[in-house]
Amino acid sequence: MKKAEIFISLFFMNFSIIIFKMSDSFPSLKGHDVGSGFFPRMLSIILIFLSLLLLFGCFKKKNSIFAENNEKSIDILPSIRVIIVIILTIAYRYLLEYVGLLILSPLYLIILMLLIKVEDFKKSVFLSIFVTITLWFIFCYLLKMPLPTGSIFQ
Amino acid sequence: MVIDNLLIGLSIILQPYSFLMLILGVICGIVVGALPGLTATMGVALLVPFSFGMDPVPAMMLLIGLYVGGIYGGSISAILIRTPGTPASAATLLDGYPLFSKGKAGLALGTATLSSVFGGIGSAFFLITISPILSRIALSFSAPEYFMLAIFGLTIIVSISGKSLLKGLISGVFGLILSTFGFDSINGFPRFSFGLIELYAGIPFIPAMIGLFAVSEILNQFSKYSIKEFNKKINIKDLLLNRLVILKLLPTMLKSTVIGTFIGALPGAGGDIASFVCYNEAKRSSKHPELFGTGILEGVSAAETGNNASTGGALIPTLSLGIPGDTVTAVIIGALIIHGLKPGPLLFRDNLEIVYALFIGFLFANIIMGIVGILSMGFLGNLISKSKRMIIPLIMVFAIIGSYSIQNSYFDINIMIIMGIIGFILQKYDIPIGPIVLALILGPMAESHLRKALIMFSGDYSVFICRPISLALLILSIISLITALIRQVKNN
């Protein structure tokens, strides 16, 4: 638990420092306007302060307002399935431009349903194809909103 | 005189074609609102061309029906799949989804439906009776008042921080920093664009919201060893709340109707702000504030009453002054002009019968919304509860298509994925994501109005205390903050 708290505080501190440094190059005070950099700088200072409090709170006693109430441990690494889903989703997003929604979506859906252990394979295939076609119909024909068709078909 | 006008309006609405368009608009609105990525604004904008060939009254019935249905429809996906269908339903999921997770989908959906109808009808009452007065108050809001309203809204972060106030604040400030990405609204300087043209407009809000809520939850479900599916069937009886429950929710609904209508009447402040403010007020005044966020009916009721009440509120400045109350009414003003009706005082002078037809149409839209909601929610709720394993991958595809379809942009899908991963990781470390969404909504409003106020009043900070409405909002913010802090200390 302490490791997780330290990791979060360090992440947000680093994020705030980057934001603060980048805000330095923004146009500053002109007339009565506080400038483009005022809010990001102020917020990044507040976030650094809060992150330090969180770091400090790791070592404080239990009943502090800033200390966690529960003592459960948290897995720092997500499960393998989650990583696979993320990789698949990123691949789906990039392949959409080339292959298009109609072909890619049923495949993507079937793989996700297998990962989530849907027992009836035939039903998952049918549903994947049916939902893809229905969504295509709703968006492209009813709402006239174009969906990715795939550049290899153009 | 008012009664005569209302009866004339009623006779116009009850013509078969106009009434049919009203029903069609509500049904389309509920579907649009329930689909993540499609908003009521988008739905109304898409239907405007379809209404070109119609007479003004049926055309406006179609659009108003869609507006009302769209705001309500967002609660369906918020409760069932943890994805607000519209930004106005972001507060609904705070208690709506936990209720669904406990197997109380029927109760959650029934509460959302009743509260939406109550809020809508209540705001119709204000629309009909005190439009001119509310419009005058709304018009007295300037940059200092809007800044204070945003600050008041941001104090809600304390309420939705959950167990750890510090982590909630970190989440909120992180969200506020993200809201500064993109063109500076005052001098147009591109901030944190990292060389990407797509980031000049800032982080797109709806894909970010879909990512934070829906995608993070999908990833969370994939990270579990087993997925709970509910065998309890939802009947229409489950959706019709019993008398005791309704009586218990009545004070919340009454208060949220007033607050929601007022916030809706403020130009630029819509259902999203109204729902969070009402949620916060319900929590602040509750005998059991610690239960909010765990699945409590008052939480769902406050948010849904507030966001639907804001629809009537938004129509107040729209019709009486020609100033849009929110983005949807901005599109509706365009539609009114296309149909030869100029919103504002002249509309009341030259087309009074149409104005009252719009009032009655709005009232009926809320009633129809309730009936359609009750009839269809059982089916939807059962479908999603029992087929959760199959639904989860489908939601991911809906989320991707929804994010893409807003601007036909692959970049929006990238944002959705990134925010989904961020949301998943943050939740694993018990950092609430509600404050991030609230900050994304209110951050730009707070910054731009602070800077406008300082420019308008020559850098004089006392303007925030000297103007009465601004001072009142500041005091409310302080009270809201102190009571929430005291509550947190007591809980710890």
Characterization of this structure:
The complex is a heterodimer of chains A (154) and B (492). Chain A is mostly helical and 154 residues long. Chain A has 2 domains: 2-57; 80-153, no CATH class. Helices cover 64% and strands 0% of the residues of chain A. In chain A, helix 1 (2-23) packs antiparallel against helix 2 (38-57). The termini of chain A are far apart. Residues 63-74 of chain A have low confidence and may be disordered. Helix content of chain B is 74%, strand content 1%. Chain B is built from 22 helices and 2 strands. A two-stranded antiparallel ribbon of chain B has the order 1-2. In chain B, strand 1 and strand 2 form a beta hairpin. In chain B, helix 1 (2-13) packs across helix 17 (352-386), helix 9 packs across helix 20 (434-456) and helix 14 runs parallel beside helix 15 (327-338). The radius of gyration of chain B is 21 Å and the shape is globular.
Topology as H/E string of chain A?
A: HHHHH
Q: Count the helices of chain A. How many?
A: 5
What sort of overall outline of chain A do the alpha carbons produce when their principal axes are compared?
flat
Ends of chain A: how far apart?
53 Å
How many domains, in number, for the residues of chain B? 1
Task: Please state the overall shape of chain B, judged from the principal axes of the Cα atoms.
Answer: globular
Average predicted confidence as pLDDT of chain B = 86
Radius of gyration of chain A: 24 Å
The greatest inter-chain interface is formed by: A-B, 74 and 61 residues
* Widest β-sheet, arrangement of strands of chain B: 1-2
Distance N terminus to C terminus of chain B?
A: 58 Å
Largest sheet of chain A: none
Average per-residue pLDDT of chain A, rounded, comes to 83
